[in-house]
Amino acid sequence: MLRPSLSSAKPHPAITAFFQPIVDLRQGTIFGHEALIRGGAGIALPNPEAMLALAAAESRLTGFELHCVEAVLAQWGRLSKPGRLFVNMSADTLIEAMNAAGGTCWLERMLANYNIAVRDVTVELTEQCAAGDAEALRQAVKALHALGARIALDDFGEGHSNLRRWKELQPDFVKIDKLLTQGIANCPQNVALVRAIAGLGNAMGSELIAEGVENAKDLRVLRDLGIALGQGYLLGPPAPELLPALPEAVAAAIGDSRIAVMPHAAQASQPSVLRGLSVIQAPALSPQTPVDEVAAAFQKHPALHALAVVDDGTPVALINRQSFMNDYARLYFREVHGRRPCLAYGSNTPLVVEREENVESLLGILMSEDQRYLSEGFIVTEQKRYAGLGTGDQLVRAVTEARIEAARHANPLTSLPGNIPINIHIARLLDSGADFAACYADLNSFKVFNDHYGYWRGDEMILLLARLATQHADAHRDFVGHIGGDDFLMLFQSPDWYRRCAGLIAEFNRQAPGLYDEADRQSGGIEGEDRHGVVRFTPFATLAIGAVRMPPGMFRHAEDVASEAAIAKHDAKQAASGLTVREARPRA
């Protein structure tokens, strides 16, 4: 079988241009079109990647790319008022296209030949390969800008399209690779990465184009992250003819005032335990330091609870002040032991805490049977090298504060968003002018159930409510947050939110009796103390939801929305149906 070859077909094989729309995600209009090459009848390889690879193998990539660009410009020039054109070039091809000959560069001559306005052209710098001459590329981009054209950095996050190139070339547009955009509606990590790239775009002065937009859910997330432009099969596939306008469904999705619910990481990243811990800067002892010098160090630093023994930067022991000084005060101890090395007089199994230690590993230490670390204290290291000391009290406080902070982001029992994400989402709803319903869910008779069966059974009931609340919400329209205990806040943008709430109440009330013991199920409830300490028969736990419709513009702060929902919840707990709707009232 003969190997395919570009040169075997003809010196310049036939090239056809297809055009894919680039859409303004803010206005719902077509911003421009990217030209994509396709093989014509005179070439055996219709796949553009294969054609480029073959041209590179035959050492004619630059010439072939220029031929493709000319074919694109010729086809574009025949169109009537087509708008903005994005045309692909590799770094070396752009350098060649901007080389001046006879006072003008190749690209300028081609644009003049086909009567194309320079200001309508954007060169997409592809990731095929790095420029052979980085300085020549910078000069070519500078000349391109001087000409009046613009430049885009293609496939950021892939290949040679990186932050260094972004900083050096200062492109007008940066296209975010589909690796980061596809499936973003279900990937909190990609949301975080794209949000960071959006911040870079603002700092660098570049507009962002999201590639690979293939479904409405991803589209809404990208739009709400502030990505200005999008491209992908949902917005329009490559075609030989220009797309005159967006499909009605796509325009409706872009114009929808409802905001996207950003995917939430089930396991929030643990903050550094030592973020809020004051590390005690204390001198270190060497293993050969005499015992007398240890005593002198304690006398010089009366506030120190311990001293670390460090060998070449690595902690090897911890000498506790109280136990050491008790021994040092014994009769004849100084005379016998004063000149001996101190290593033998400390604990050779000290607790060593790395600055980046996470909460859960240290929580295990605090809950272990060995509690001597609380009195002895511990050694702090940074990248395994001695950094200072800490006390048991500081460790307990730091772990507690870190866990409280983590719970504010994600409830540790249900993994649902906690108070901080709830407030952030309410603020986004208010800022966008969305029409939504805030629904506060709470359990009736939960305290009696929890006290009677124990907190582990109480957790089962809370998990049941969390699971059912999630099932009755649209994951991309409705937000389910866990305030704490048996309190949940649901923020509905779904128009059938009332039906969803009623269904949630009915389903919870149907399943909750299954959490009771058989005898209690037969009795219809349990006897126990209520919130007032009175022993009485309490029927099965039920769900109450207080709802408030939030018309656009009535409130400015998340706290006001939460307060209105809490009042509605109080009313719902008194209602027989368990569901009440309250009219929102503006704050004074």
Automatic annotation (TrEMBL):
SUPFAM superfamilies: EAL domain-like, Nucleotide cyclase. Gene3D superfamilies: 3.30.70.270, EAL domain. Residues 1-252 form the EAL domain. InterPro entries: Cyclic-di-GMP_PDE-like (IPR050706), EAL_dom (IPR001633), EAL_sf (IPR035919), GGDEF_dom (IPR000160), Nucleotide_cyclase (IPR029787), Rev_trsase/Diguanyl_cyclase (IPR043128). It comes from the Bacteria. GO terms for molecular function: cyclic-guanylate-specific phosphodiesterase activity. Residues 434-586 form the GGDEF domain. This is EAL domain-containing protein (Putative c-di-GMP-specific phosphodiesterase class I)/GGDEF domain-containing protein. It comes from Variovorax guangxiensis. The lineage of its organism: Bacteria, Pseudomonadati, Pseudomonadota, Betaproteobacteria, Burkholderiales.
